[in-house]
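Researcher: Let's try something more involved. This one mixes different molecule types, so please make sure each is placed in the same coordinate frame as the others.
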Amino acid sequence: MIRVEHLTKRYGDFTAVNDLSFEIEEGHVYGFLGPNGAGKSTTMNIMTGCLSASEGHVRIEGYDIFEEPDRAKKRMGYLPEQPPLYMNETPLEYLKFVGEAKGVKGRELHRQIESVISQTRLEDVKDRLISNLSKGYRQRVGIAQALLGNPGVIILDEPTVGLDPIQIIEIRDLIKQLGQEHTVILSSHILSEVQTICEKVLIIDKGKLVAFDKPENLEKLLMASNAVSFIAEAENDEIKEVLEEIEAVADWQMKKQENGSVRVDVKIESGEASDVCRHIFFAFAKREKALLELTSKKANLEDVFLELTESGVDKASVDKDGKTDKPDTEPTENNDVEWMERQVDNR
Ligand code: ADP
Ligand code: MG
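Model: All components are placed in one shared frame. Result:
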């Protein structure tokens, strides 16, 4: 339903969006995830026809946003990063104005305004000046205006930024509800937000798409970073023997503690960390060797994000001794796409 092809946006010498291509299907909630400055707002502004592109195409249900902007725009509702609200109007006056600007008239306009006010739960404040509303309510007015004209796609740029925790929960619930009737695309730099609301995640970094998948699949991508650590009162040879019995174990490091016990960090290649823990527990119990500690770490979307975006490359690849240990599958300037394809193949 939305097709973005080789989208590029340059500001002088600086490339804010770099050859971005993806497709959005109907009826899902999509998340644009990326650090500040990744190019999320720029992409959304181009997709909604608010900004021109340097190269590439955006098609909304087949209509090119640059060639047939009116038709394409009718199919989208947009809440920009800075909601375009008029502070000296009431939500009711403002929604009437936006609805008319979108070409909705008369009784239909009246019906739609009632419907969006009810959907965004603005009934109690609809006659107050927008300048007197809290940020949470202003954001709802912003979402209400995006819903006018009944577009199939709702695009929301960082809809929860600047809200307090209760307002954030309310807006997230509202977005989930909208997702039942609309295709929703929202941007965020907050991982947990995208993880809880979105069915599909596009991770953008420095204007490039570095991943596009379901949150749970992105976690699977990093299964390799699942790890188990334990401290055992055993000899190195015995520990080696135990670890070699476990197929899922990819690699390990042992370190003698001052009290004679050994600390072991185990990297797991596939499978569940909990299965590896279970095996280690019983193997040492059978040998009557004490385990003083046993913990597992499961990769989450945060790890995927850090691994995939440049901001995380530094952190992820420098170990506690300060050595860099770059995996050969790490994205670099020139092989992002190749790297992504390899990751997808590996699944
Ligand atoms: P995000 O929304 O992911 O935080 P943006 O799309 O706002 O990122 O910005 C992407 C990059 O483009 C940033 O480095 C930003 O400074 C730059 N940028 C955005 N708008 C302009 C502009 N009008 N002129 C020059 N650079 C810009
Ligand atoms: Mg932004």
